[in-house]
């Protein structure tokens, strides 16, 4: 394993949690291995390890971009990561609200629904849905 892949795996585990990474790794096949290595090395080992932004900020940006692009399948994972990176429930809501102002209410509405579902299963002070 090269240095960037090693660093990427460490950061990926710290941000997403070992359980998530273990699940993803256990589903890796020879066909998907190059893509998993690419994600780990390029995204986690090259981007998330850069010193220019802290992990809290990177989580905010990631949630905003995923929401804006309608990448709903990734939002739950990154809501959990945002909590792990120190964002409060209120800060996550602010990111989604802010994104809605610029990317559209329907996409933010979907992200809020996903976020509420995830946060309700976590040990946080999550307000109940109205």
Automatic annotation (TrEMBL):
Keyword NADP in annotation: no
Pfam family membership, one: CMD
Domain of life: Bacteria
Annotated EC: 4.1.1.44
Keyword line: Lyase
Domain (Carboxymuconolactone decarboxylase-like) ranges: 35-115
Gene Ontology molecular function terms on file: 4-carboxymuconolactone decarboxylase activity
Classification via InterPro entries: 4CMD/NDH-1_regulator, AhpD-like, CMD-like, Decarb_PcaC
Protein name as it appears in the record: 4-carboxymuconolactone decarboxylase
Organism: Nocardia aobensis
């Amino acid at each position: 394993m090269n240095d960037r892949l090693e660093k990427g795996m460490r950061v990926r585990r710290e941000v997403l949690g070992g359980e998530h990474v273990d699940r993803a790794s256990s589903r890796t096949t020879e066909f998907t291995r190059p893509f998993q290595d690419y994600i780990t090395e390029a995204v986690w080992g090259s981007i998330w390890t850069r010193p220019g932004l802290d992990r809290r900020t990177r989580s905010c940006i990631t949630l905003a971009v995923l929401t804006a692009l309608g990448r709903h399948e990734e939002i739950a994972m990154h809501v959990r990561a945002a909590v792990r990176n120190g964002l409060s429930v209120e800060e996550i809501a602010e990111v989604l609200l802010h994104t809605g102002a610029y990317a559209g209410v329907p996409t933010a509405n979907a992200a809020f629904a996903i976020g509420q579902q995830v946060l309700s299963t976590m040990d946080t002070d999550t307000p109940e849905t109205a």
